[in-house]
Amino acid sequence: MPDSALADVLLARLTDVLPAAGNPFRAQEMTAYMKGVAPFLGLRTPERRALSRTVLDGTARPDERDCAAVALRCFALPEREYHYFAVDYLRRHVRRCSSGFLPVARRLVTTVSWWDTVDHLAAHVVGGLVAADRALAARMDEWIGDEDPWVARTALLHQLRFKADTDADRLFTYCLRRAPDTDFFLRKAIGWSLREYAKTSPAEVRAFVAAHGGELSPLSVREATKHL
Fold first, then answer.
1. Is residue 219 assigned to a domain?
2. What is the pTM assigned to this prediction?
3. CB–CB of 185/153 below 8 Å?
4. How far apart are CA 63 and CA 30, in angstroms?
């Protein structure tokens, strides 16, 4: 856990402001909706983000060490709203992080893993790191074969925002690599990644699904072709 004076300030403010605004009844509803993956304080997204702006008011821009410290300390706390703060913070400052931040991102992906944090980390944090340093794509080639399905899902989704810069061959290879999996979230990610790329290159996705539809699950095909 890196030392960071900025993280000290932010965590002190967060742990003071967020619990005070929590709603226990709503917290129970939110915990149930998220299948009990983590407890909640009971803050709706607009309210939480407004409070986050208060927490951030007057603080300096972080460097990579600060980003790691803030994110890791937030994810060490039990309530999900702290994790959301960390994800939002990294989305805002990912350009201040180098390729060396990838192990921290992986740590977050594998901590209290569920789609509500993993998908944003995949598309905005891991994807941002790979976009800035294409050599990291080789690490994604490792992640797609990982035994942890959330790590593999991150590899599938990291190009979601790449549009015309998408490495289509890598995307299609990843989809076929994990096509035999029965995990719902992997099958959904295959379809989602293809559907997103179809907004840029519908003909390529249509041809891929036509050629390999028998290897993909019905869920993946349905998601991939939803807007074709």
1. no
2. 0.96
3. yes
4. 33
Among residues 66, 67, 71, 134, the alpha carbon closest in space to that of 99 is found at 134
Nearest to 71 by CA among 27, 10, 149: 10
Q: How large is the angle between the packed helices 45-56 and 80-93, nearest 10 degrees?
A: 60
Tokens of 91: 């989305």
Number of separate domains in the chain: 1
Rounded to whole angstroms, the maximal C-alpha distance in the chain is: 55
Asked whether residue 104 is assigned to any structural domain, the reply reads: no
pLDDT at 1 (0 to 100): 81
Contact present, 22 and 51 (Cβ < 8 Å): no
Q: 67 in a domain, yes or no?
A: yes
Query: Two tokens at 32?
Result: 């149930």
CATH code of the domain in which 10 resides: 1.25.10.90
Q: Per the domain annotation, does 83 fall within a domain?
A: yes
pLDDT tens figures, 15-61: 999 999 999 999 999 999 999 999 999 999 999 999 999 999 999 99
Q: In Å, how far from its chain's centre is CA 219?
A: 21
